[in-house]
């Protein structure tokens, strides 16, 4: 190794980037840094999920949309992932009486993709490993690290310790980030974690006679005011159903018979599809999971460390943007690396400056949708919303772009989309549309 | 000890309450629990300030108002503390041209008191010690504690460890609470810390010919948009001046000459009063201090631990309620102890239920005033605000009570005061008063 030039593109080959967390954003980031020629070390506290049995406790499927796809494309992964996703062109609203009504996500040809979290993670880890400069270290639990030197200590399974020295530490270790804990000790670090009163629970709807039990190319939604269920299709022709409900209400359902009674009342059409026996059993498989919204600022610590994905901004799942925002983090960071010639001391503050307002905007939007949902979302509301969107679009076709479209099908910066939305809302008000009919869209 | 009865008033004598933190709220709490007959152990990480030299880094004086006084009264401390405070009946607004204009805090006879933080702390510690059941433990740094058993481990100066077992742990250990760290590890604990872009710096204005350099019975304010200085009188006839300014701006002033230049431009009347030489020197005595707003929920952990004061809700200082809210915490807890017969398993959740909305309301109000101040507060604004208040009060004398009055001179619950304020604002709008003229009041 004798790089006599100062060109950082060459010196990057000597620099070690430690990516903490081998989940979705960590694995994608490994690809990005490896592609630039850095020595990439990924540290994941769990075992390699490619060898592991079923991973429990995290949502099984996710909705991939434009931002996530663009981020995958940059490292040549878009086609591979899209080919294993199931397009969802519309929401399918299930009324209490069993009526199903589709509401398209956008214009013709605009759709989101149901993707399998575990498979996506595996593909990204394998992609990262194709770079000779990348090393994946599993079962490495971060014990300590220095904000000054970048020295890191990991605990191995047998109690042994391992040390490495990193030029840049990229914290992609999720909503309960160990990396972020050091940020909390710094002066003037802003941080919030907000749990919502709802929990969620996943159920499986099996195939019927080898076919999907419901129409596959839809995100199925059962809106029932404070309760809601959604279902996303999987490649194996099952659906994963997710039930959202206040924790208080979960506590009221404690026996199999109560589960059936509850479903009879709110989701009667789902009982035969999930199967009464499976429902009674699987409902109690895991306790209801909590959902947290995390915001913080800054995202960097000197020129040594940067946070991305859930570690920087966990969002509640009511805008379908958690993974997409995390993937776009990698893309935005990559763009700034280009602009500022890989100079970490300039790139990191710029990343904070550019990305914080956008991540905060999507976190707020997701929370806003949660609050909206909690207060008045039923089937009629959903169908009415469609009417309002169409009406606005009809009277101002060139100026009104639905917020959902900007968020889901463009790379308009999140905070710009929100600004524009407020502006559009004002225009709507001038035309006599009251603010209860605001442009929002769940999932 | 043979208490054969189940009366908790008697059994309280066997129970150990560990108060963590011997600052203002911790010391007051010690009095409250001792008065009820509990065995009180106060643990403070620093030395006894009654023996210590000057305590640095915390604001020297504070404004005591109704809520704080009521809390002191309940343990017989009001008169002692009030006798050492200096009444401030009005704000005194200093214009750039040197004009001084008073704005009363309330009606005739309504005033706030400038009190010395160190003296108040000393008095409260000594008051706590008058109870035979209270033990003050200084230089005890909390190492660890169990949320299940109440077992606590403290580190002593020489490296020795000390263990105790508490029935109730009361976390009064300030904005960076060590007790609160355990809460963060619990599921569904909501937490936020927000630093504001302003810092503060304290300066002393000495007496002139043995007398106060300015009129003593006022809180002096120099509002200069994003800069602001205030001054509170002390018993030794000095004033403590506090300069609030964005950190960016602090960084622009690095030499003694620049300090003078800066004061010439914004606070010319203060230069001869502080003294040019002292100003040049003292300005650099300590770096500008950060201000943080902390909110969290719940305030309790099972029946074992509860947070009060800054540990539960640090507020920015722009409503003068930080200490008053902390003292009122003790009073509210005491009221609930009466209502629920000292049953911790009922008292702690009830305290969270009742107190969280109020503490969040005052934290938000203080932040709201900060944002208002930052955007447009100058001398004219202050004087105009007075006009608006008077006008509203004139047209609706029985229904409009200024927000500042409710917060400062009553025990109206903070969140009720805010609700009422919004209502009044709506009434004002109906009478043609626009929302830029909202009822707010700094300090």
What is the topological layout?
Two copies of one chain form a homodimer.
Chain A: H1 8-11, E1 16-20, H2 24-35, E2 39-43, E3 61-64, H3 66-74, H4 78-83, E4 86-88, E5 90-94, E6 100-104, E7 112-116, H5 117-129, E8 134-137, E9 141-145, E10 151-155, E11 161-165, E12 168-171, H6 178-184, E13 190-205, E14 218-224, E15 227-233, E16 239-246, H7 247-252, H8 256-266, H9 270-274, H10 276-282, E17 289-297, E18 300-301, E19 305-307, H11 310-313, H12 322-339, H13 344-376, H14 379-395, H15 403-409, H16 414-430
Parallel strand pairs in A: 1-2, 1-12, 2-8, 5-14, 12-19
Antiparallel strand pairs in A: 3-7, 4-7, 5-6, 9-10, 10-11, 13-16, 13-17, 14-15, 15-16, 18-19
Largest interface: A-B, 10 and 10 residues
Query: Helical content of chain A, roughly?
Result: 25-40%
Termini Cα gap of chain A: 50 Å
Radius of gyration of chain A, taken over Cα atoms and rounded to an integer in Å = 23 Å
> Any idea of the CATH class of the largest domain in chain A?
Alpha Beta
The fraction of residues in strands of chain A falls at 15-25%
The CATH architecture of the largest domain in chain A can be given as: 3-Layer(bba) Sandwich
* SS elements, strand count of chain A: 19
* Biggest β-sheet: strands ordered side by side in the sheet of chain A: 6-5-14-15-16-13-17
How many individual domains of chain A?
3
Largest sheet of chain A: 7 strands, mixed
Protein name (chains A, B): Kynurenine 3-monooxygenase
Pathway (chains A, B): Cofactor biosynthesis; NAD(+) biosynthesis; quinolinate from L-kynurenine: step 1/3
Cofactor (chains A, B): FAD
EC number (chains A, B): 1.14.13.9
């Amino acid at each position: 190794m004798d790089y006599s030039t100062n060109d950082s593109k060459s010196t990057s080959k000597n620099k070690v980037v430690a990516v903490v967390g081998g989940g979705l954003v960590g694995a994608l980031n490994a690809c990005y840094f490896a592609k630039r020629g850095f020595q990439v070390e990924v540290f994941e506290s769990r075992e390699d999920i490619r060898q592991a049995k079923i991973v429990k406790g995290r949502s099984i499927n996710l909705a991939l949309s434009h931002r996530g796809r663009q981020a995958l494309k940059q490292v040549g992964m878009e086609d591979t992932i899209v080919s294993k996703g199931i397009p969802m062109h519309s929401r399918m609203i299930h009324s209490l009486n069993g009526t199903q009504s589709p509401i398209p996500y956008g214009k013709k040809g605009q759709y989101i993709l149901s993707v399998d979290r575990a498979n996506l993670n595996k593909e990204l880890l394998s992609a990262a490993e194709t770079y000779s400069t990348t090393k994946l270290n599993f079962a490495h639990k971060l014990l300590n690290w220095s904000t000054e030197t970048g020295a890191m200590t990991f605990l191995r399974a047998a109690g042994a310790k391992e040390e490495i020295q990193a030029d840049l530490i990229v914290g992609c270790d999720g909503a309960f980030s160990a990396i972020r804990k050091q940020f909390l000790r710094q002066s003037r670090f802003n941080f919030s974690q907000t749990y919502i009163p709802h929990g969620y629970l996943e159920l499986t709807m099996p195939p019927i006679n080898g076919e999907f039990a419901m129409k596959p190319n839809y995100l199925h939604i059962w809106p029932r005011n404070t309760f809601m269920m959604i279902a996303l299709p999987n490649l194996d022709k099952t659906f994963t159903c997710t039930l959202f409900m206040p924790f208080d209400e979960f506590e009221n359902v404690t026996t199999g018979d109560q589960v059936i009674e509850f479903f009879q009342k709110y989701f009667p059409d789902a009982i035969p599809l999930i199967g009464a026996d499976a429902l009674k059993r699987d409902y109690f498989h895991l306790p209801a999971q909590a959902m947290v919204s995390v915001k913080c600022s800054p995202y960097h610590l000197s020129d040594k460390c940067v946070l991305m994905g859930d570690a920087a901004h966990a969002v509640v799942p009511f805008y379908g943007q958690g993974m997409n925002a995390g993937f776009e983090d990698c893309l935005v960071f990559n763009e700034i690396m280009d602009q500022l010639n890989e100079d970490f001391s300039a790139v990191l503050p710029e990343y904070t400056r550019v990305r914080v307002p956008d991540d905060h905007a999507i976190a707020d939007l997701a929370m806003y949708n949660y609050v909206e949902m909690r207060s008045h979302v039923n089937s009629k509301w959903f169908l009415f919303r469609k009417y309002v969107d169409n009406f606005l679009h009809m009277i101002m076709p060139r100026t009104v772009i639905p917020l959902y479209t900007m968020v889901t099908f463009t790379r308009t910066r999140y905070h710009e989309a929100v600004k524009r939305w407020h502006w559009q809302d004002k225009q709507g008000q001038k035309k006599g549309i009251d603010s209860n009919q605001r442009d929002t869209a769940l999932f």
